[in-house]
């Protein structure tokens, strides 16, 4: 199974691709592996890239109808999704790790539900999410003032307040942290990651830095029937890759922002090779 992230550089076996190019997902996979050798491709994506990713997935399936692409729009930025993807791929190699793509989806969703995506802003001038006040933007012009924002939160907070975590572990930052950022994170042990997000990011400006608190990969039971079409373990009664579900089953309605798009709406199309 492959994991690919839009608006992301590569990271530890996870492929990054350009969300703005209609054939970028197809070209990224073919450039690395030639014609499709992996039947399942999992694409966790920041929510603002979901439409472009669905279009790219249809291009890839049109080129190779045998491939199955599962799209998971999640409330995380590219750094968090790439780190989660790397952890999922590493878990396959451990004793008791996942053995099919549907189980990998279960692990990825578990990590996503327990991880955090933050952004450090040295300036707020070009940030559109969340909406900031004129006073905050003016204060952001001061050299000593910077802000933190957690995706999904209603507002930014002064960076000097810190991210409000009970745990100092699991923190990662894209690139070497600036002294001002390190001071804002205080005693947290931060691991720099050789990673470059790019493209449209409504929650980030040109100099903003993505920060992740990555949850630990814990052992868990792998449950669920297998998809009749692609054999992946179903998640909440639906195959993330094919959109297939048990015959006669009602549309699943799981709660929460972290449910896959095809699962939360119950509208995935069966048999296209794209589920989202």
UniProtKB/TrEMBL annotation:
Residues 261-276 have a biased composition (Low complexity). Residues 255-276 are annotated as: Disordered. This is Uncharacterized protein. It comes from Microlunatus parietis. The lineage of its organism: Bacteria, Bacillati, Actinomycetota, Actinomycetes, Propionibacteriales.
